[in-house]
């Protein structure tokens, strides 16, 4: 008999408070709704960055795999202009951008019967500049992911605090300590907390994953730049 009474009381409470998302949204105060909207914007922005970076990194990886053997064949035959043309056809490749910068600088100084050390050093600096620019492009939006991952739980915590305040305010206005007096505020608090974690966790995961990818790309660009400079040095040695 007691079980049926408690079950009936729980059904009445659920009907009164309403724990579905629509009912909880209707019961929220202005501050809690503002927190939810802010978290929704942060979530949408982070998802947009994830999609954009995933597409950019995938295209960079795909074109680099096609570019590396093609440009290696051109350089092996000494076809600098053809190597530059191949690089220009792979604009999405991070390796192509670095190698093209070095080749363009080398061609700008002209090809003499004896390659000067200044020309090689100039090409090295051009590769370094291109690598810095490409690194900045690859990292675009990642700082925002880090910020969202770090701050979203605290934004949700602010909503939690507001919800608890509303719960105690409801208890004070109804002059009772019953569950019905605080259920709305508690549900509001828990919802904002959960939403904050829902936004933060994927952002942190994505930031770490993309950061590792950028580091790997940076190593590949450094190696490609070094190999290109070694090629110029060997060419100079062969010309002597």
Topology:
Layout: H1 2-17, H2 21-27, H3 30-76, H4 80-88, H5 94-108, H6 117-138, H7 142-174, H8 179-239
Question: What does this protein structure show overall?
Answer:
By secondary structure, the chain is mostly helical. The model is unreliable at 1-18 (pLDDT under 50). The chain is built from eight helices and no strands. α3 runs antiparallel to α4 (80-88), α3 (30-76) runs antiparallel to α7 (142-174) and α5 runs parallel beside α8 (179-239). The chain has one domain (39-239). The longest helix has 61 residues, at 179-239. It has helices at residues 2-17, 21-27, 30-76, 80-88, 94-108, 117-138, 142-174, 179-239.
Strand content: under 5%
Q: Regarding quaternary structure, how should these chains be classified? A: single chain
Instruction: Give, in order, the helices and strands.
Output: HHHHHHHH
| Residue-averaged pLDDT | 80
Instruction: Give a quick account of the main beta sheet: strands, pairing sense, barrel closure.
Output: none
Number of strands: 0
What's the helical proportion of residues?
over 70%
Q: What is the number of independent domains?
A: 1
* Gross morphology: rod-shaped
Report Rg.
30 Å
Poorly predicted regions are: 1-18
End-to-end Cα distance: 103 Å
Overall SS class: mainly alpha
Number of helices: 8
């Amino acid at each position: 008999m007691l079980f049926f009474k408690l079950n009936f009381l729980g059904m009445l409470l659920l009907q009164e408070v309403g724990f579905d998302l629509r009912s909880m949204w209707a019961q929220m105060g202005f501050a809690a709704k503002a927190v939810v909207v802010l978290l929704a914007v942060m979530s949408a922005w982070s998802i947009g960055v994830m999609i954009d970076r995933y597409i950019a990194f995938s295209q960079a990886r795909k074109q680099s795999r096609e570019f590396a053997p093609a440009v290696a064949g051109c350089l092996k035959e000494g076809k600098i202009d053809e190597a530059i043309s191949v690089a220009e056809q792979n604009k999405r490749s991070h390796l192509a951008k670095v190698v093209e910068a070095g080749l363009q600088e080398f061609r700008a100084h002209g090809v003499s019967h004896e390659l000067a050390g200044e020309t090689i050093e100039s090409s090295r600096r051009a590769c370094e500049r291109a690598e810095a620019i490409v690194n900045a492009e690859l990292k675009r939006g990642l700082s925002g992911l880090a910020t969202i991952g770090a701050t979203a739980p605290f934004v949700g915590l602010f909503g939690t605090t507001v919800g608890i305040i509303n719960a105690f305010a409801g208890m004070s206005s109804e002059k009772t300590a019953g569950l019905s007096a605080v259920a709305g505020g508690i549900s509001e608090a828990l919802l904002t907390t959960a939403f904050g974690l829902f936004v933060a966790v994927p952002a942190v995961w994505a930031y770490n994953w993309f950061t590792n990818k950028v580091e790997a790309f940076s190593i590949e660009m450094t190696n490609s730049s070094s190999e290109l400079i070694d090629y110029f040095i060997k060419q100079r040695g062969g010309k002597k």
